[in-house]
Amino acid sequence: MAKSALILCMDVGFNMSNSGPGEESPFDQAKRVIQKFVQRQVFAETKDELALVLFGTDSTKNPLDNDDQYQNITVHRNLMVPDFKLLEEIENQIHPESQQADCIFDIALNVCVLVENTTIHKLDRRNIVLLTDLNSPVSSDNLDVIIENLKQADITLQFLPGQKRPRTEGRPGHGEAHHQLCMFKRIERRPMAWPCQLTIGSALSIRIVGYKAVTEEKLKKSWKTVDAQTNQKDDVKRETVYCLDDDNETEVQKEDIIQGFRYGSDIVPFSKVDQEQMKYTHDGKCFAVLGFTKQSSVQRHRFMGTQVIKIFPGKDDEHAAVALSALIQALHELQMVAIVRYAYDRRSNPQVGAAFPCIKQDHECLMYVQLPFMEDLRHFTFPSLENNSKFTPSDEQLSAVDSLIDSMMLVEEDEDGKQKDIFKVHDIPNPAFQRLFQCLHHRAVNPGTPLPAMESWLKATLECPEVIRERCQSALGEIKNKFTLTQVEKKKKLKTSAQIFGKDSDEPEAKKAKEDEADEEFNLADIAEGSVTSVGSVDPARDFRTLIRQKTLTFEEVCKQLTHRIEQLLGNKSTDYYMKSITCVEAFREQSVKLGNADLYNSYLQLLKSSIPTQGLESFWELLVQDGVTLISEDEVEGSTVTRNEARQFLVTERIEEAAAHPAEDPGDVDDLVRIVLL
Amino acid sequence: EGYGEQLPLKLGGATCVREERLTGRDSLVFLVDASKEMFIKGEDGAPSNFDMTMQVVRTVYTSKIISSHRDLIALVFYGTEHSKNPNDTFKHVYVYHDLDEPGAKRVQDVDALRGEKGAKLAAETLGCGPSSLGDALWCCANLYSDIKLRLSHKRLMIFTCREQPHGGDNVKDRQARTKASDLKETGVVIDLIHLMKPGGFDVSLFFRDIVSPPEDESELGLQLEPCEKLDDLQKRVRAKEQKKRATARINLCLGDGLNVAVGLYATAVTARKPPPVKLYRESNEAVRSKTRTFHTQTGSLLLPSEIKKAQTYGKKQIEMEKDEVDFIKKFDDPGLVLMGFKPMEKLKLHHHIKPSVFLYPEEGEIKGSACLFSALLKKCSEKNVYALCRCIARRNNPPRFVALVPQNEEVDDAKVQINPPGFNVIYLPYADDVRTLDLPRCTSASQEQVDKMKDIVTKLRFKYKSDAFENPVIQKHYRNLEALALDMMAPEEVEDLIMPKVEQIDRRLGSLVDEFKNLVYPANYNPESKPAAKRKTGAEKKPKVEVSMDQIKVHVQNGTLGKLTVPVLKEACKQFGVRTTGTKKQELIDALMDQLSS
Predict the structure, then answer these.
(1) Chain A positions in Cβ-Cβ contact with residue B432 (cut-off 8 Å)
(2) What is the ipTM of this complex?
(3) Can you give the residue ranges of the Ku domain (chain A) (predicted)?
(4) Which ranges in A138-236 belong to alpha helices (H)?
(5) pLDDT digits 0-9 by tens, A508-523
(6) From the centroid of its chain, how far is CA B117?
C-alpha cells in the first residue's frame, strides 16, 4: 500500500496573532485546521506518517540549528504515525509566539528534507503543508526556485493557508479546505482481487478478477468492556455457564455438552464431527453460468446479499479481456443477464446471482448481485389499493400529489441542459461514523465533560435541502387541505400498560389530579366501611393501598399478600393478567417510596427478574420495561442500596443479555473475515 | 432458539419481537375432504385432488420446520368412515394430527398418505363415509380451545372438490354455517381451497357463507378459479399460509408534520442454517446458558454500573458509559423523512447494500394513510420517479437513506397476487460504502466476436423465476436432520439446483464454443492455466521474515505495527510472551500494544 509522509509546517510567529476585532486570528484558524486534519488521520488509522514543524517559535530546536541560521524553528514532532498524544499537544502546547521566521519556504524545504530522514521507512509520496498567513516576507522569484527544487526532490507542496490571503493565485481557499476537513476521512479499504474463471459449460472459460465494489462498510473496531474504576479491559472477565432448565438450575460442565439442532418440534443431537462429515460440500471458488435471462425478469427489489461485485478480465490478459468484452456487449445488446453460481471459496456457501453488463465510457465490466433462494422469500399478499373505493384518491388529490412531486425534484436541468443532482447520497459520509469519531475525540481531549451535540454541518447533510423545503411549501399546504389524516385512537392495542390504563404522560395534568382526588375519596370511603381486610383478587392494587393506609396490618404482611396475588396473576400467562400485575407492582413501588422502605420492593423485583426464564415471563417483563418500572434508587428513598444508574440499568441490561443469548450465526460467506486476516 | 425467532429479531428488532411475544403463536388447521371424489385421478394419470393436497400439506410442514417451527399445525379429515377425535364425540371426523409444532414424525405420516400407496392407506385408516362439515368445524373449534398456548393468528383451510358437501341437506348446511360463524367469531380465518371437479366449482352454492370475507372487500378471494394444477395449489396455499407481520410501524413524514403511517415488511430474508442447540450429554435435554461478567481479581460479579465501554484510537483508550454509547447512535426518533424525488434512472443497479423491504400503508394507525399513500404510489409510478427518504427503522439506529420505488399490483392468470401494491425500499450506499477501484485497461471485442457470443447467449436462454432455486446448503442440513430424526439409513439426496447443467449446456452450444474461442483466443492460449499458482509456490518458499524485538518496539512506539504481516505479528507475540486468543490482525496488534506500550 502506498505510504506517504506529510510535514505540517505551522507559522506560529507574531504575525499570526493579528486579527480584526471579533475575528478569529490566523493562528487560531491554522490550529483548528491542523487539529481537524490530525483527527482525521488518527481515526482513519492510516499508516501515513506525519511531522509537525513550528516556525516563529521563541526557542529553537531543529537539526540545522547553528549560530544564526535556522533560528526560531522547532521540530515539534518527527515523522511518525499521528496519535492522540499529538492531538493533546496541539490542544495544550501550541501557542502563538513572538518571533518571526524568515524565508519560510526555503527553510521549510531544508528542514523538511532533514525531518524526513528521521523515519526508517520508505515513502511513496511526500507532502509538505504550509500554514501561514503569508505575511512573512517572500519573493515570487524565490518561490519559483523553491518549487523547482521541490519537484526535483519529488515533494508536493500544498497550502492550507490562513484567511488573510491570497497573494498568489490558484490555491484552495480557506473555506473549502476547512469544509473538507470537517469530515472524518471516509473509510478506505484496499480492494482485494478475487481471481477466478467465468465458465459457460465445460469448454468455455474466461479468466476474470472480481472486486467488491459496493458494500456496507463497518468499522474495524468495536466497543470493549472495561472496568469502570481502573479502565482496564483485563479486569473484566465474561464467563458463560450452562445449566439445566430445572428448579435448581443445575450447572452442567462444558465437557458434558453436545450440540443438536431443531427439526421442528424435535431436537436432534448432531455432533460437530457428524455435521462436518455430512454437510454440503462443493468444489470451491466458482463463477459458473447457469443460463441467460432477460434483464427485466430479475427484479430490483429481489437483490439479496450485502454487496455488489465488479467482474473484470484477468489481470494483464488481453485475450480474457476480449472474451469478457464480447460477453458484456452481447448481454448489453440483448438486454440480458447471466444467472450464475458464485462461490467465494471452499469454505463459503455458494450463491445464485445475476451478472449484469455494465458499459461505461472508460471501462466495461460485469456487475454481480446475489439473488434469493426459494427459502428466503416470503409471499405476503396485501389488499389491493386500487380496487378499494375507500382508498382511491380523487383527481384533485392526485393533482396535489403531482405538484408536490414536481416541487420536490432533486434532479434538475441547468441552463445548458445538463442534469444536476442536488442530493447525492453516495457523496455523504456515513453519519454514524462521523458522530462516533466526534464523540470519541471529544472524550479523549476533554475528559470529564459531557458529549457534544451533533456538528451542524453533519445535521444539515441529513436534512431536506433548504431550496426544496421552501419550494414545496405551497404544494405541501395543498396536500394538507385535500387529504384528511387522523391519528387513530388505540383502543385495544397492547402497547404499554400505561396507555391501556389511561395513564399516558400526554394526559392533561388537571385530569390526572382529578383522578388522584377520586382515588383518595374512594379509599377514604373504603376505610370508613372497613370493608378491606386482605389483598383480594379483584383489584389487588387498590386493596393494597387501602390496607397500607389502614395500618391494621404490618407493611411486610401487606406486601406479602400483594406479592402472593401477583404470583397468582402471573401464573395465568395472559396479557390481561399481566396488566393487572403491573398495576400491582406499580402500587407496590409507589407505596414503598411513600413509606421510604425500598428493601422489600427491590428484593422482590430482583427475584421476579431472576425468575423470568424459568417462569416464561418474558412478555410480562417487556411490559415492565416499557413502563419503566424499575428498582427504587437511593435518590428516591434514602437507604436504598441501589444507585440511580443501577436502577436504570436494571431494565436495560435485560435486553442486552437477551441479544447476546441469540447470537446470529456468522454467514457462510467468510470473505470479509479472510480479507481482514490477509490485510 | 430456531431461526424462526431470529429472523424478526434481526430485522425488525424490538418492535417485532415484542409483537411476537405479546401475540403468541400462529396456527393453521388443514381440514381436508376425504370423500370418494377426492381420490378420483385426473386425466392421463394426473394425481388425484387428495394426492395433490397431501403434497401441499407436506410442503407446508417442511417449510414451517425450516422457517417457523413454533407455528402450530393440525391435519383433520372429514367425510371419513372411521372417526378419531377427542372422546370420539364426532362421527366421520378424523383428527390425523392435532394442533402442534410440526416434526419429523408428522412429515413421515403425511408422506404415507401420498401417491398410490397413500390412497390405499387412506382407504384403510380413514375410509369414506357421510360428511358433516358442521361436526368437522366443531371438532376443529375444540382443537383450538384445547390449546393452552396463546394463539395469535388462527387460520383454517378447507380443501375440497365438492361444492355441496351435504348434498343439499338443509339442516346439515345450516349447522355448518352456524359452526363456521362461531369459529370466525373467535378470530379464526376460514379459507376455501377449492379443487377442480368436472363442471366447475360453484362457490355460491354453499361455501360463500362458510369462508371468511376477504381482507380487502374486493372479493378477490371468491373469484378465484378452482385449483387444477399442483403449482397453483402450492401458490395459493403459500400466499395464505404465512402471516404477514410488519417488522416496524413508522411514520412517513412528507414535511411539516404531514405524516402517513406505514409498515415495513421483510419480504426476502436470507435463510440460514439455524444455530445449534446445546444439549446435556446424559439426557439430551437442552441447557440454558448464563453469561456473567465479573472482576478478574476479586471474582465478584460486576453490575452494569461497574463497567464501561472503550475503544482505542491513536494509542489512546477512550471510555464511555453504556448509555453514552447509545446516545451516540441516536440521531432521531424512528421514521421515514422525505427528502425529495428523483427520476428512476438515477437509481443505479450498484446502489445495493442489503435486501430491500416492502412498504405498505397502516390505515389502523393514521386514518387516511392508505389514500395519500395510494396517490403517492400512483403518481410516482406515472412520473417514473422514486422518493428519496431518510430512514430510521428502529430506536437508536443511525440513519440510512432509502429509495422508495413504486410497485403496482400484479396478479397472475389465476388471479393470485404476484406483486403487491406498495413501495420497495432500496437502501442506498454512503460514500464510505462505495470502494474506489483501479480500473484495468480494457480491450473491446469486435462486433464479430460479440455476435458469436450473442449466439451463445441466445442458445442458453431460460425463464428466470426468483423462487426456482433451493439453497443446497440448507436443504442438505435439513435432509441430514430428517434422516437422524427418523432413523433413516441415509439422508434423502438433495439436488443442487444451482449447479450448472454442464452436459446440457455443452450439447446445446455444440460447435459455437470452438467458433467463439477461435475468434477470441490464440491457438496456444489456455484460460485454465493459473499464473497465480506459480506465485503461490513462490510464497511458500519465501523465507520467514524476521523482525527483531527492537524493531517491534519502534513499531509499537510509532503505532506502525499495522505495517507488519500477520505471521510476523504472531511471531512477535510469541517472542514477547504476549498471550492472545485473537487471530485477526487487529487483535494481534491490540494485544501487542496493550503489553508493550505501557
Answers:
(1) 186-187, 217, 429-430, 433
(2) 0.78
(3) 249-388
(4) 140-152, 174-182
(5) 333 333 333 333 333 3
(6) 33
